[in-house]
Amino acid sequence: GDTESVRFELRRDGAPVYIDQVEQLSLNTVVGQFAVPGSAQAVLEVEVGDGLISEFGAVALGDEIWLSNPITGAFEPLPAGIDLDPSLFFDPEGGWQPLMEGLTDVELVGIEERDGADRYRISATAPADRVEAITAGLVRDQDVEIDFWIQPVTGHVRAVEFTTAVGGDDVEWELELSEFGADFDIQPPDGLDS
Question: Where does the pLDDT of residue 88 fall: very low under 50, low under 70, confident under 90, or very high at 90 and above?
Answer without folding.
Answer: low
